[in-house]
Fold these 2 entries.
Entry 1:
Amino acid sequence: MKSLLIRGGTVVNADREQRADVLCVNGVIAEVGEALSAPMGATILEAGGQYVMPGGIDPHTHMNFPFMGTRTVDDFYSGTAAGLAGGTTSIIDFVIPDPQQPLMDAYRQWRQWAEVAASDYSFHVAITWWGESVHADMGTLVREEGVNSFKHFMAYKNAIMCDDETLVNSFRRALALGAMPTVHAENGELVFLLQQEMKAQGITGPEGHPLSRPPAVEAEAAQRAIAIADVLNVPIYVVHVSSAETAEAIARARARGQRVYGEVLAGHLVVDDSVYRDPRFEFAAAHVMSPPFRAKGHQEALWRHLQAGALQTTATDHCTFCAAQKAAGRLDFSKIPNGTGGVEERMAVLWDAGVNSGRLTPSEFVSVTSANAAKLFNLYPRKGCVAKGADADLVVWDPAGTKTFSAASQHSKGDFNIFEGRTVTGVPSHTISQGTVVFAQGELRAEAGAGRYLKRPAFGPQFTALGRKAALAAPVAVAR
Ligand SMILES: NC(=O)NCCC(=O)O
Ligand SMILES: [Zn+2]
Ligand SMILES: [Zn+2]
């Protein structure tokens, strides 16, 4: 029997804070309560009044991702190890088949790549084309492989973009299977057109990236996807919401009673679009990701929508490329591989800019860094909750600890840090994964292959509610 007693902390869940000890036995939380006694041979971790919270769940990462002619530098080991160093104990990554590639082939390939993961992980599967085999494979993935969410790229024309016909077919199939459709909302046709226009005007540097992806391009796609989901009575989750207009579209749909959910990235909350006007190509190109960083006003709007509940989850879209890879777009910004990092920094950025500013309570911090993602993707309360029976994935949080982010000291293999030079107050002192201390006071003890694949059951609670609503509103023929 392997046990760990975390003594003298303040346990924070999404619903409350309490002074309590946490006893972990064989990777699972065995007890949460006052003055727990340690079993023989238990490891004791003195929390000394620090917060004890669910380990973070990053619901949007891309490790070992072959994209735009290259591959991300973080594989599933280095990426999840970086996550553990920042208090994130689970990721949901993406299987992204090439158009015409059988979904199951891509899924098996990604499962193999992920075998080196140091933390638990799961997969959304992208629908990049449509056909009979896609319809069938979605069923296999849901029923046999525990996939309960499918991703749709509305951008990346001539690559992985899906058209409205595919969206409709896939959303409908997802609903029948009890799986959540998710969208990368950007109008790929408009992006393509604006990219050509920028280049025709002689704008070939990274400043062309945000100019070809204005907020309206994101909002149009989000509203289209939301409208399709409304007609089909399917829930929908919009990934990496970056603009006020898109967040407002989600808030409006929710106010109408639609089950629409939004994710915001730590980067979009604190980094603004001035980075693209930096004269150094390497610096500006390192920030090229889609949707791009926005003008400052959008950040305040995103924070407000996160506080108000229109946006429920925080992620990173961790997708790291190094300078040599970004250089592929030196003469043409549309060839710069899209992606930035952040899996190690997300929790501390959210605490520092969210809790320390009074925007979030510690419980709300737990909601947006783990519990809400666990609920939406049907991992709750196994994940996202400090309670008896949950996985012993925890972070011991030092609200007074400080850290200055830098590429030089990060655990990601990337050579850039979008939070470079930012000093945060509030950092993980210890991370516990499956009941084992994997990060302690700056020392990372991540183990390749220790992470487990997480199956996520279909038909989360929102599907029951949608089914009732659909039954009550079912069309009725007129008897003549
Ligand atoms: N976000 C980004 O720029 N790269 C990763 C792929 C995606 O999520 O769109
Ligand atoms: Zn995306
Ligand atoms: Zn992504």
Entry 2:
Amino acid sequence: MTIRLGPNRYGKAECRLVTVVRDGPRHELTDLNVSTRLAGRLDATHLTGDNADVLPTDTQKNTVYAFARDGFAGIEEFGLRLARHFVTGPIDRAQVHVEAYGWRRLGGHTFARAGDEVRSATLTATAGQAWAVGGLHGLTLLNTTGSMFKGFPRDQYTTLPEADDRILATAVDARWRFATLDVDWNAAFAAIREGLVGAFTDTYSRSLQQTLYAMGERVLERVPEVAEVRLALPNRHHFLVDLSPFGLDNPDAVYVAADRPYGLIEGTVLRDDAPLPGLAWDLGAA
Ligand SMILES: O=c1[nH]c(=O)c2[nH]c(=O)[nH]c2[nH]1
């Protein structure tokens, strides 16, 4: 029997980091969660415990804080700078994942945490190349009309009535791959978010699948730097309550907001001429 070391990587997970830019009375706040992952020639530490090639995860954490000292032009730029820094010597691949929690401004120096919405960025570097993936998670959207679901096959297990007008709700989980690193990151994020929300709002939806495609398509139409959009949209079902036991009708007024189970609609929308993803999505095996 032969046993060998398979794919491996290591890093510091979830470095929580808040930055304040104090240019005048109007302060800027960022609230981040940064994770690092390094991979390369790391056989020795696993096989013999020789740590000569192991940059401590504690050092990685300190580097994250030090690199934040002078601010950054978007979390993508911050992650890219860090990922490139970590690629040296035996480390031939590095990935930095940054999550940014939203804060709503209440005043010059006062903020309120803004819901569950999270912006993310995953930056991957090798010695010669780098890739950027952005993301938006936990943005819950709901249309009270403009959505139907009908024409589906029926068999002996089908109970779902056809819906001409239903509530459509989802919590957007989107990631997109940039074709280039020459990007105005914050402007791109704003345009992408607007594209996702705009397409959800505007699309007369015959299925959440159709809405998913429209959302990805809108991003690709509006933001030329994006090559590919991956979406996972939970269908947050809202079922009409049967009020007939109480002698009442229900003119599309009262719904149960179901928790589980939920439909999960997933899909990728991409350009025909999208460059190959390389390590953008996955740091990969050695
Ligand atoms: O938009 C929808 N897509 C489905 O695939 C599906 N399946 C289901 O039960 N309801 C819905 N709604």
